[in-house]
Amino acid sequence: RRMRSFMQRAGGQEKLEQFLGRSVIQYKDEMRPDIKESLIAQRMRAKITEKVNTTPLDVKNYFDKIPKDSIPTYNKEVEVGEIVFQPKLTREEKESAKQKITELRERVKKGEDFATLAGLYSQDGSAAEGGDLGFFDRQQMAKEFTANAFRLKAGEISPVFETEFGFHFLQVIERRGETVHARHIIIIPAITDASLERTHKLADSVYKAMLAVKTFDFSSAAAYYSDDKETKYNGGMMLNADNVQTRTTYIPTDKLDPQVALVVDTMKVGSISKPQLFTDPQTGKKSYKILYLKSATNAHKANLEQDFAKLKDAATNEKLNRTIAQWFDKRRSETYIRIDPEFQSCDILKSWITASKKDNAQAKTTE
């Protein structure tokens, strides 16, 4: 999810890899130790702050303490929902892709180089790495992918199998505990005009049903029909990608997908759009979407009536930071903290050294 957000901001996987100077797979491998350390810190932070609660009175007090000339200004924001209809291919429409991946597997079995074929034919970002996916655990891949990868021995090649992304086969390179290092080749079935037409008809029928049946609301339609896992069970509502932790649905208009922003700009609050064809900027995949404009606020100075949710987030963050600071202060005097002499002149780090430790540190540096 985090990498998907990075790719979206960069304008796609290829542009992100150009910026990083390495493949996404290499970057993930390099970042794993840092991410592991970050997750440990997050769990500890959650434990320290588990009893923090912010009441409406806390929010009011927080807002009242902000100097009048420091009250923040919020840009125009919207709450937007989406029902995503992805084209579904028939078995016949998928057959060409299945035949191609089967032929590639046979070529590998007969001795052709896996990495070379992956580089020539595989249809995802790993092609540039010869299909190499690096190490992954059971939670990181589609269930069909995991099922095949974790039952093979090093060097073995899986049968052809299908996931929501396309047809694959893989080869296990190495097993290490509960992780597997593997490479794969994927062929993605091409979306046909007929499948797009079927998808449009379904989306249009759902759109008309929502207009005709009052009890069939947007949230219910999203839960039943939407193919987007991130919004399907959230009433179809998009989340602010820059503030995922708070799960806020308020999104600045300049942060919306430009395709979505163009449609939203023509809508009235409370309305739903006719199904329209969208292209995913990361993958190039096409889908039909019905959009719902739940709310829209113009740029304005923060106030309790319009911005209670955001002010509550800010008040909560202040309480969390204060709780964390108190926890550190309590333990700083009773915990051994070593700071290398070359960094002891840093003003930020000085507060971490108690008087006795400072004396010891100074004594050691003069020896």
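The above is record 1. Record 2 follows with the same two-line structure.
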Amino acid sequence: MNIIKNVIKFNMTQSKKLTGRELYDAIGRPKTIVAPMVDHSELAWRILSRRYGAALCYTPMFNAKLFATQEKYRDSMWTKGLDGNEKLDRPLVVQFCANDPDYLLTAARFIEDQCDAVDINLGCPQGIARKGRYGAFLMDDWELIHKLIRNLHDNLKIPVTAKIRIYDDYEKSLEYAKMVLDAGAQFITIHGRTREMKGQKTGLANWKILKYLRDNLPKDQVFFANGNILYPSDLKRCEEQIECDAVMSAER
């Protein structure tokens, strides 16, 4: 009887959904992260990136509604047995863009057994995101963002994370980040650029505001910094200046 009780207790422990710091420890405390990039972050790129030092990779952004409702789209974006393969492609975070909590949850359930966490894209500043009402253009609707995150947090077997951009205002950026965390995000990745900083107006990411956010969010909060990583030396410089847990790098 004691053996049965111990087995049940072990299984319950194993199935417990990890929280932020627990998840970060479980995936090896990665310091170097390859960002989700459309048309870049597919499996081959992730394998290559890990070979050259990436400790954590994200998929490209998937459209949650299409992923949930169109098998052809889903199969074109995700190959069962390869994407998320425990020997080839982990640790892995799968990123979705969405503006509907139900479609997002349906999409995430297709892959929740094949990745370590699901991330919500709240940072895409491109015109297609404006047209589709997702990414950084949800920054005008905090209530919807909260619902998207909370729905995954309450109903998925794995943790939910979020990648956001900043506002020009330090305090508004802080309140925004706190809201995202309150909704249930276990990691927060903050890109130190505003929604308007894109294309020819990209400019430099603001590490000062990232440092401010790091200092004013809970100390045990897993915090990834993103922006201005042009050279290998920038990784250490960013980590030291911001005191973040890890640095995420994309194109710049």
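Strands lie at 32-34, 56-63, 92-97, 117-122, 160-165, 187-191, 222-226, 246-249.
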